[in-house]
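[audit] Reproducing an earlier prediction to check determinism. Same input, same settings, fresh worker. If the tokens differ from the archived copy the diff job will pick it up downstream; this log only records the rerun itself.
[audit] input (367 residues):
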Amino acid sequence: MACSADGSKIAAVTCCPGLVYLSTNSGTTWRTCNAPLTNYQSLSISADGNTIIASTSQGLFFASTNGGESWSMTAAPSASCYSFACSADGNRWIVGGQKEVSLSKDLGASWDFNTNFVLELVASSADGKTLMGFGNMRALSLSGDAGVTWTTPANGRLPPGFSLALAASADGINLVRTMVPFLTGHEPTVCMIECSTNSGVTWNRTGAHALAYISIASSADGRKLVAQCLCTGTNSPIYTSTDAGATWVGNIVPGGEKWLSPSGAVASSADGSRLVAVANQHGIYTWRTTPSPTLSGIVSSHYMVLSWLVPSTPFDLQQTSSLDNPDWTEVGVRTTMNFNNLNYEVSLPRSTHPVFYRLVLRVSSSK
């Protein structure tokens, strides 16, 4: 399962029967797409929700560039896909497979292969240039040039363990992973969550409880995290963090024992204020809170660019010439999405007099 940057478009796949489901209203209603019937394994969606890529257990990839209306099979390598990730625009892909790492920069039309190592778990920054992955169960490999060259940090070879899930911030600097360490003797293994704030060079164990975490997702800035675990007893199946993993909170969810499944998935909007989770035998659940986007600006000699992280609730950009007796009016300029940092941007001519701007929660969704 995956969702767009604003959380309004959610896509999910099933294995048997192999179907692709899509919601365009944050999970309120769902429909099946015209995707081929096959055994789907994983799925990604672009930040704007227009491009959807689904992989199968046979290593085949199907892509749609019109929101799921039509699909085509790509020229992806025909080998089992361990893990798959793509850039925010949906064009750059990285596939971890049985014998190699496969890379595409044109929506799967052509591929480059690296047979020097195998990555079983992969993740990508929003621009698709910073890539990371775990191979041989514990060695971390990093690339800062879209997979052309790879390095293993001096501290990248972590204590023996098996990584289960991996997520990255939009810039690829903040990473989070769930892992099961291999302990000596007959000690019971536990699952933990570790975070990195330097693209994987060093890792720190978070304050998460030792549970069987099977899926994890991150906001664009890496501050808000959500993890799903195989709950037992009184444990919660969904844990969230708002401080980059330092502290975690268990969430009360409906369904009870229906979440007791070794499979599941979580997804997060760019601002982390809209979350989606799958209870394998009890449907798809959504959670949301009202975000507080921060407005920032860059001024040049002739233009000013205002930007804010894509919010999961619509906001309107307003302006006024005075704060003494403000007369706020909407800025009638179309916003564009920056796929590299998942921000909305507005370019305006530089004014010769003072102008004040603000973001206001949209009252009517019809605008």
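[audit] rerun output stored. Observation attached for the diff report: The longest strand covers residues 161-168.
[audit] end
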